[in-house]
Predict the structure of Toll/interleukin-1 receptor domain-containing protein.
Amino acid sequence: MPHVFVNYRTGDGEQAATTIARDLSHRFGEGLVFRASESIQPGQLYPDELLAGVRRSDALLALIGPGWLDAPDPARPGRRALDDAEDWVRKEILEALMEGTLVVPVLIGRRTERLKAATLPQPLARLAYVQSLRYDHQQASTDLGRIAEVLSELVPGLEEDSAAEPSAHPAGDGSTANTVTGDGDGHIQARDITGGVTSTVIRDAHGPLNTGPAAQHVHQPHLEGEGATYVSGDNKGGVRHRFGERR
């Protein structure tokens, strides 16, 4: 089966890597997408697993964020990480190029510019001439669909599951993840609902509840007796207490 390797730099593209990898796994099938932090199991040697993951892949997505090019080398202050022959982002890309694997740069965000050969280490200069894709979380659905479409066209045997439903994207990536579930008895649980919703009605066994900006109408049982607490019908009068005559 064909595999896709997601190459990224920690601190620059891990959130996008998570979103893209999970979306592709949802579309193409579990186990066909390699992302280091999720695909390497405890106890495994990561250098061996990383290179093995690249070698068995049919495509490598090189995720390039705004700080990718000039990310500092943590071991050598004042030097770029890309200039270190042992930098894993660099090693994975070069391994893919040596294996003849399809390498597709994915520019993260609207402001990340295309690479220029003059700014890259000489072994990576080829990346500047490779047609790239773009992933922007503000149009995640469109961009994720385009990435999947290109991989389907360029990687023989990689087919999207037509029965798969659109996946939800992590909110930490800037995308919106809407989850609405029901229990069959009229109770609805909703989480992380965002967007231009002006009014939502959630119904349960006690009656409708309007969550929109309009006047709130709360339907409660009629309460009587001393010390009874109730909410006015239009929710404008606050909470009221009813007491009988002082004894």
